[in-house]
Amino acid sequence: MLLAGESGEAPVTPCCSENGDQKKNLKEKSDINIAALVKNEQVCEGTDNSDLPSCVSAFIEKEVGNDLKSLKKLDKLIEQMTESKMQLEEQVLTVSSEIPKRIHSALKKAEESKQFLNQFLEQETHLFSSINSHLLTAQPWMEDLGAMINQIEEIERHLAYLKWISQIEELSDNIQQYLMTNNVPEAASTLVSMAELDIKLQESSCTHLLGFMRATVKFWHKILKDKLTSDFEEILAQLHWPFITPPQSQTVGISRPASAPEIYSNLETLFCQLLKLQTSDELFTEPKQLPEKYSLPASPSVILPIQIMLTPLQKRFRYHFRGNRQTNVISKPEWYLAQVLLWIGNHTQFLDEKIQPILDKVGSLVNARLEFSRGLMMLILEKLAADIPCLLYDDSLFCHLVDEVLLFERELHSVHGYPSTFANCMHILSEETCFQRWLTVERKFALQKMDSMLSSEAAWISQYKDITDVDEMKVPDCAETFMTLLLVITDRYKNLPTASRKLQFLELQKDLVDDFRIRLTQVMKEETRASLGFRYCAILNAVNYISTVLADWADNVFFLQLQQAALEVFAENNTLSKLQLGQLASMESSVFDDMINLLERLKHDMLTRQVDHVFREVKDAAKLYKKERWLSLPSQSEQAVMSLSSSACPLLLTLRDRLLQLEQQLCFSLFKVFWQMLVEKLDIYIYQEIILANHFNEGGAAQLHFDMTRNLFPLFSHYCKRPENYFKHVKEACILLNLNVGSALLLRDVLQSASGQPPATAALNEVGIYKLAQQDVEILLNLRTNWP
């Protein structure tokens, strides 16, 4: 059966369509019968195929079993098995007759394929020999042709070389003719074309051609530049350039000559012609560059006409501020800084009104005033780079130089609109050696300032103590001076060109804050015994003020940008955990968080010490009140008018005096925290030490209620609308002690019958009890002595 099935499934191509259909029908019938017998043949699974008797007996056992009635199935089973046997025999005969035919067909096809392969091999051999023969024949032709191609390419290169030379000579001849006819504009335009050709040829390996081109451009550039420069300087001289006097007197001087329109026309013509020489001028003139250590931003050279306009000013600057001139004093940087600002101011009107329209007319994007300022700025940078090493270790001179440079930068940016992206003095101050010295000097003078401000007689007195509206924070002079110092430092370094330098200054500020906090802590410890004294309160106000200002600064755009820069630095150096980086990135924390947390901790400790001090005084004053005979006091009906317990007077007087004292000495926000902390302790103290420690008759409960609600609570009514809400334990205890007897009995029954259940909570809320627990209420009810 297995062999027949395997043979029937072999993928042999049928010889004819009839045989194919016949095989398909037989296979279908066989599959149907086999499928019908699958269930019966499962008995033989797991047995050896050679063990036929066992398989048959198992099959009979399964189909017949012990039931004799099942013997009726034998005829049907025999019939099915016989039919299956006949079909399998037919299938075997059919397949055995087809296999030889298929094998014969396969062998025939293989023979044909072999013949085709031999034919291809013969053709390949013939073609190979033909190709070799052709290559041998064509080899001399290829060599001759290659030589001719090389000659042609060589001739083409020579021709192109000659064309370039011809083009250069043609342009050179044109320039010469234009100059002979005094047509300078066309000569300048032709020189521009020649300079553009020079730029295109820079990638060529023809060094002699490049040299010839560069020499030709240089020759004509020098002739044109000298001629135009001479003419341009004459026009400027007629305009009395440079303007040494203020702008008000310039207009008078310029408007005098009747030929002013002609002068300005010639000025425009010459300016435009010089502007055309800019391309060729950049080929020969390298802009002055300071050493790389100053990290100046890349910038193009100043345009040629502005360079010529700057020349007389540059001569004046070098004459006065270099060499042994009396004006060249290293301790007076303000002289040359002020001179440059004066020059910029004197020429701004002329540049804006006369030169800028020319640039706009030719479509240039250059700003005349900024270009003029940029040229003068290079003089300042060169001067600073030369002077700073000479005074680096003289603290007073160096500090004076930095101050003057910062003032110069501020006026240059704010008044004259000089962009911070251009090269400026901050790049010189950012050089490593100079910058580290600046940081050192800044720290030194800041610490000296802190010493002087803390040792001042007015250190702990507010400058605005007599002005109520201004003195809300009650800031002592030392704290305000210190924060002003930090603000000034911020203004000094916020225009530094790189974030890394700004972050170093930020670390300096944080160090100064920490140092000032330590100094405040030291002074505070000296005043610990007088924690309610004026100086102690002034220190507390100072700590609160510094913390508040730092929290405000944390939301400032400048410090947020520094926070982002710090985040990038920390991420690169892996100096913070992922949680800290995430907090910085999400703005949950700030650059001042560490300082603020330390200041807040100090503030809390100082407030706690004050609260404890006042609380001790209040407890001492409350000793007589604790011993009051609450059991034997007369009832309210027996008294004409309720009055304050005499034993409560010391307590309330002490409390009133201290509240008034601290309200005057502490700022509003601190005093609010103080009295709320005090009330919290006082509420617990009265509840535990006075109420729970005594029993109360009707008169005692009424007296306690009067003392608390009419005398204690009103002491705090000036600071909040409902002070009783801060004395929740005392208020609710007074309610329970003063309930009428019937209500008290009913409440006690409800509590006993519904312990911990919603009805108990509802009953407590109904009489105004929200804070006290049920057990506390039961204890308070048991303190009453007026039960029936």
TrEMBL record:
Q: Which GO terms describe its biological process?
A: endoplasmic reticulum to Golgi vesicle-mediated transport; regulation of ER to Golgi vesicle-mediated transport; retrograde vesicle-mediated transport, Golgi to endoplasmic reticulum
The record's GO CC annotations read: Dsl1/NZR complex
The residues forming the signal peptide are: none
**Chain segments annotated as coiled-coil in the UniProt record:** 71-98
- Disordered: region residues: 1-21
Q: State the InterPro entries in the record.
A: EXOC6PINT-1/Sec15/Tip20_C_dom2, RINT1_Tip20
Q: Which UniProt keywords apply?
A: Coiled coil
Q: PANTHER family from the entry?
A: RAD50-INTERACTING PROTEIN 1 (PTHR13520:SF0), RAD50-INTERACTING PROTEIN 1 RINT-1 (PTHR13520)
Q: Which family does the similarity line name?
A: Belongs to the RINT1 family.
Q: What is this protein called?
A: RAD50-interacting protein 1
Q: Which organism is it from?
A: Ovis ammon polii
